[in-house]
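For the sake of transparency, this paper describes our internal protein records without simplification. Because each token names a local backbone shape, the row as a whole describes the fold. One such record is reproduced below, unchanged from the form in which we store it:
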Amino acid sequence: MAAPNIRGLVNLTPDALDLPIYRIYALDRFEALVATATDALVHPTKWDDPFENFMLARTEVDDPTSGSRIPLKNLADDWYGQCWSLTAESDAMWRIYSPSGASRGVKVRTTIRKLFDNLRAVGPPEWPQQFFVGRIRYVTEAELDRLMGGLTFADVAAGGQGTGFAELLCLKRDTFIHENEVRLIFQDMELPDPRRPRLGAGGVMKYALDPHAVFEEVVLDPRLDDATYLAMQSDLQAAGCGLPIRKSSLYDVPHYVIRIE
């Protein structure tokens, strides 16, 4: 395992915190975020790739003392996450998260620092380290097999701060490398502190997020015709979105003039 990460950073250095990151929300989900100033992290079991929760839901600890295997599945209920991307524009991402025919995706831009600082504001500074942000490390299935085969529970649980588990939640198969992902992660530990009840329920952990303080702009689907784009822009503004709103220029066709000879 890697050395403990400073301030909950996984596969990131402090100078990367001001990098821009992007996420595509469904239109109705984004409108709800604007109306309630609330966002949510979800259990890894709700993510699309079944391999993403393998380290908790499908891993057991071999206990030679008792001769039994202890499942880590219960630990999975303590973890929540949300996926972002370092890639500003991607045809694949628009088509995945704003499906053809619907084209109702709303992409927002922020920075790793703004997003992570906002998440950490959920709890007071004296809480144990429970907040992480990590860049995904893409590996082959063979590499995953070697990694898991060489780990011990002591490796991932060292220090009791959750860093080892967060590092495992920042592993992903290389077939998803196009996502260029950064992941917000929260460990919903049960602590002996009456001010700190568990924050998640039903696989979702909701927390305060003011989009006008955290996000920098809104970008709409490049496949929208002009009339639909203007209507969506107007609807978002009427719903309370005061951020700059533009249409993605991904499919804009450039105009060239060449010499006759």
In short: The two ends are 61 Å apart (CA to CA). Confidence is low (pLDDT under 50) at residues 1-5. Residues 226-238 form the longest helix (13 residues).
